[in-house]
C-alpha cells in the first residue's frame, strides 16, 4: 500500500485544481487498437510532476482506443447499448492509468459513474472533492453514466462539480486551429478564442454540449499538445504560448 503524504502547493502556480481530459486514443500510442502501457506510464509521469507541485488533479479518460458507441465498430448496435460498452472501455483505461500512477507512488482513486465496486468507487461529488483535498489524483471513469453523452460532456460536468479552475484538453496538436492542421498547411493557431466562435465555426475542440456547459458556467478550457513532454507542467506554471485558451 502506498503511504499517503500531504503535498503543499508551490508558489506562483496559475491553477489550484485542474481537470485533465485525455482521449482513449492518446493511450494507444502508435498502435491501432488497445492500450500501450509505456504511453500510460509517460502520462502518469507527467501527472506526477504536476501533482508534486501541489496542484489538485482530476482526470477524465475516454475509451475510443477500445470501443466508441458512435464508431464503425458499433455497427448497427442499439446506440444506448453501444454507449454503455464505451463506458466500460473508459473504466479499463482508468484502471490502467491508476496502475501506472501507483507504480510511481502517487495515491490515486478511480471513481465510476456506473457501479463496478471491484474496480472503482462510485462517483460521489463530496467524496471526490475530499480525495482531491487529501492530495489523491482522481480518475473519473464511465463518462456521465448515461448514453448519448460523450466523455467531453463528462469532463465539463465533473470539472464543474469539483469546482476545477480549468479544463485541460489534451490533444496531439498545439492548440485550436482555424482548420485541421494535419490536413491543411495554411491552418493558423489561435492563442485564445471564445466559446461562441468555437460553436459558430464548428471547431473540433469538444462537442457542442460540453462547450455550452462551460460557457454557461464560465469554465475556461485550455487545449494543448499532450505529446510534448512537460507541457502540462508548463501550463500549470503559467508559461506563455502553450496551447489555446477557450473563454469569453
Q: Total strand count, please? A: 9
- How would you state the average pLDDT, rounded? 91
Q: Do you know the CATH topology?
A: Carbamate kinase
Computed over alpha carbons, the radius of gyration is 17 Å
Helix fraction bin: 25-40%
Give the overall form. Answer: globular
**CATH architecture assignment name:** 3-Layer(aba) Sandwich
Through-space gap between termini: 44 Å
Strand order of the largest sheet: 4-3-5-2-1-6-8-9-7
Task: Show unreliable segments.
Answer: none
Largest sheet: 9 strands, mixed
How many helices? 7
- Strand content of the residues, in percent? 15-25%
Number of domains: 1
Q: What is the CATH C level class, in words?
A: Alpha Beta
Relevant CATH superfamily: Acetylglutamate kinase-like
Task: Determine the structural class based on helices, strands and strand pairing.
Answer: alpha/beta
The arrangement of helices and strands along the chain is EHEHEEHEHEEHHEHE
Properties at a glance:
single chain, alpha/beta, Carbamate kinase, 17% strand, globular
Structural summary, described in words:
- This protein has seven helices and nine strands.
- The chain has 248 residues and is of the alpha/beta class.
- It has a single domain (17-247), classed as 3-Layer(aba) Sandwich (Carbamate kinase).
- The chain has a nine-stranded mixed β-sheet with strand order 4-3-5-2-1-6-8-9-7, with helices on both faces.
- The longest helix has 24 residues, at 79-102.
